[in-house]
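Hey, quick one: can you model this chain's 3D structure?
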Amino acid sequence: MRHKRGELERLRRLAARCTDCPLFANATQTVFGEGPGGARLMLVGEQPGDAEDLAGHPFVGPAGRLLDQALADAGIDRGRVYVTNAVKHFKWEPRGKRRMHKTPAQREVEACMQWLEGEIAAVRPELVVALGATAAKALLGARFRITASRGRIVRTPGRPPVLATFHPSYLLRLKGRPGGEEAHTTFVADLRKAARFVPDDSDT
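Sure thing. Here's the predicted structure for all 204 residues.
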């Protein structure tokens, strides 16, 4: 465990100085992953949002609060999960006084894969949950489609199994709209499936 934590801290320090793609120039800071070094479950999102960019921690804004509640509903303790993003810098464009999310380009995702691969190698989770299309494609290839394979556990050589599901920010956009409640229920069901695949140590 100590070795894993040391490797994660080494990766964190290196990522904090990363200039391998242009996103670092407009971001407040690198937002690296957080959680136990030996977590059995890893969650991977797309990129930090505005709140995460300012705080320096993943999933602490509105999408993070929705994720926390969904994890609780699924019986998963977030404190036992390693949470990170495929891209470590916030990509945004100005809209009035607000900084609005902008989807990272493939080259930006590829530049950040060294950090995500390093996190996976250090933590060695038994299952990775990809939150949203960007994370799923980073882990499973550009041809992967959440609409076709959401909720399935996909195994690939040399990497932990991956379960792809919705990103919490997508659920926020659907809130109060047709299909929103159903999508949220599906999201929690996917997290419950992940929990069954990687049971809590205290349950055994």
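One thing worth noting: The longest helix spans residues 106-123.
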